[in-house]
Amino acid sequence: MRARRAGSGFTLLELLVAVTIMAVAVGTLLSALATSVRNASRLTESDRAAILARRTMNRLLLDPNLPVLQPVGARFDRAELGVEAGWQARLEPFLPMRGLPGNLAGVDRLVVEVWWMQGNTTRRSFALESYRAAPRRQVP
């Protein structure tokens, strides 16, 4: 049998220090990965909400029977966004003009707010705003 030299191999203390450093590094890496996944999930919800908001805005801009100064809204199908979500819109006269040709009376402003639940308690939202030619309205 060969005699063991004093300088070869690792001591138990060196091994414990190396394992501790690796554990801290892996823990930090996993925490960063979890944060990244959570942010990607939030971004995906936000992107889907933006698509639904644009689709709703386009549909409402083309609706000639949209009531003026009365909020309208609905909930989205949960399958569309993956979470509870909905929208609310309001059409209001923005710029009345005199002397316009035909049946135009000016410009209306349409504001659409889309909201969705993030987790169980946090409600996130954003609003889109657009304008359209306003038809002449009957004055009651």
Short description:
With 140 residues, the protein is α+β, with helices and mostly antiparallel strands. Helices cover 39% and strands 32% of the residues. It has a single domain (12-135), classed as Pantoate--beta-alanine Ligase, Chain: A,domain 2 (2-Layer Sandwich).
Strand % is: 25-35%
Query: In CATH terms, what is the fold-level topology?
Result: Pantoate--beta-alanine Ligase, Chain: A,domain 2
> How many strand elements?
4
The CATH fourth-level homologous superfamily: GSPII I/J protein-like
Distance between the termini: 111 Å
Corresponding CATH architecture: 2-Layer Sandwich
Total tally of structural domains: 1
The number of helices is: 2
The geometry reads as: rod-shaped
Order of helices and strands: HEHEEE
Question: pLDDT average, as an integer?
Answer: 83
Determine the fraction of residues in helical runs and give it as a percent range.
25-40%
Strand order of the largest sheet: 1-2-3-4
CATH class wording: Alpha Beta
Major sheet size, sense and barrel closure? 4 strands, antiparallel
